[in-house]
Amino acid sequence: MNSTQLNFQNRNALITFGCFTLIFITYITGFWNDLIDFDAPQYANMSKDMFFTKSYLQVYDKGHDYLDKPPLLFWTSVLSYHIFGINDFAYRLPSFIISILGLYSLYRFTLLYYSKKVAIYAALIAASSQAYFLMQHDVRTDTLLTGFVMFTMWQIAMFNQTGKLKHIVLGAIGIGFAMLSKGPIGLMLPVIAFGSDFIYKRNWKAFFKWQYLIVIVIAGVILAPMTYGLYMQFDMHPEIDSYFIKSPSGVRFFYWTQSFGRIFGDNPLPSNFPDPFFLYHSLLWSLLPWPLIFIIAMVYDVKTKIKAFKTDYLNVEVMSTAGFIITIVMLSMSSYQLPHYTFIIHPFAAIIISNFLVNVLGNLKWKNVFIYLSVLVWIICVSLSYYIMFLAFETSILIKVVTYVLFIAGIISLFKLKSELETRIIVCGVFIVCAANIMVNTAFYKPCFKFQSDSEIAKAMNAMNVKQYYVYHTEVTNSGYFYFHGKIDELYSYKEINLNSPNTSGWVMTDSIGKLQIDSVYTIKESKLFYDFPVSGLTAEFINPKTRLTQCKKNYIIKLEKK
């Protein structure tokens, strides 16, 4: 290798390191934002309750039996609370660590079947997709699930290639933790991916290996505490109703109802009536900035693997293709769907995109048209987001300068960076998407959370050292419970307010109607107004400062004394 080639490799290594560093810095800019109602603060608050009650096997949500998600997210959050205290950073940290493990596993898995460049760029593409930015600050069970599934894929692929027992053991551990994250999907996706690979390559013996018994045993041991807890909490107490089910079996719910029941019509959760292509068009934003490239890459990927099926099947990797296609088709059959259901297959999409950029794009006659079209889409998306953000809230000069510099540097790198075409495209995409997300995390979400009244009220109460307050004629969302350090008493009637109790603070959270009712009976000594809007469901009217307050509900905290 001559000095020119060595310098070229060193420059590419430095570029790659810089891209990963920028992505992780962008992740961190969202770490100290409030948790967005509803799911993330619900799980954070349940972990908080588990921290105090030490009820690790029986899970509760604000004192009610909980039967929706497995407990791993709660367990890891409780462990983090013990180390860093009860706060949103501690809640996010374990999932962030597992996300890094998942990206490293994606790199190692891809490296088994493709070049080092494809493997590195697959990890970069996944890490820079909008889904991954969202998973780092709006932490749900999908973050853990995605990380452990990719770890499982890597280890079982290693076992298939080397036959070493340690890899099937580690793969079994990955399956156990993936199932503890979000249920049987943690097992089904690896089964779909590897099963498709075995069928494609006519490797029928691979279906019948005694080592799979190790997987059953180890995964069973990992799942045993949760299974026991579900059995004791629900199966032994038929008087309990939970999750729209009368006398549910906790064990059946976890192993069947929650996952397979949604597909086969055996799930009690009311349908949200998704259209048949809901998850497909959700990919158009969750895969940003790569969806256009992915669509074209997937067409080439499928064509290549169909063509190789008869003659060159032994040299083709189909796990990413089958894992993506079969999984999204199955998920689309569910009666209840949300966009983050597809996050688990984003790593497979990243492999397909990376392979296309490195091995296919350079040979296409119309590659320049493709490049300019991609950049045009990026510029339109980012310019629109910048316009919305600058229109919505005042933005500091520093944030404007940083994001503009990244945005311009990304465009310049596409045409001026002395690297291969695929490197220039990836650098451009990473810089642009990081610029947008830094803007979102710092200049957009932060002021938005001033309108998440429940968390703002909780912080105001904490600042006044209030240990208890009443709630009347309005509802406290999960963020209110998580951020408040004391006790919240929800009332059905203002007549339940007891100012004679030695434990009462006299503070009440209510809305405009409740305030009028209370004012007729008590003297309001102090009153503070908070505007409320569901941050997770932004609208054009809320983004527009001129119409924002008209879209908000008014919540108050009032200090009472007897008339």
- Enumerate the strands of the largest sheet in spatial order, edge to edge or round the barrel: 6-5-7-9-8
pLDDT average, as an integer? Answer: 90
Our measurement of the CA-to-CA distance between the termini, rounded to an integer number of angstroms, reads 89 Å
Strand content: 5-15%
User: Can you count the beta strands?
Assistant: 9
| Broad structural category | alpha/beta
Instruction: State the major sheet.
Output: 5 strands, mixed
Number of helices: 23
Helical proportion, percent range:
55-70%
Would you write up a description of this structure?
This protein is of the alpha/beta class. It has 3 domains: 18-256 and 264-359, no CATH class; 361-449, no CATH class; 452-562. The chain has helices spanning 3-29, 39-53, 72-84, 88-111, 116-127, 130-137, 141-162, 165-182, 185-200, 212-235, 250-257, 260-264, 278-286, 291-307, 319-331, 346-359, 367-392, 397-416, 421-448, 453-463, 478-483, 512-519, 540-543; strands at residues 60-61, 64-65, 241-242, 245-246, 468-472, 487-491, 507-511, 522-532, 553-562. The strands form 3 sheets. Strands 6-5-7-9-8 form a 5-stranded mixed beta sheet, with helices on both faces. Helix 7 (141-162) packs parallel to helix 9. The longest helix is centred in the last third of the chain and has 28 residues, at 421-448. The protein is globular. It starts with a helix and ends with a strand. The model has no long low-confidence stretch (mean pLDDT 90).
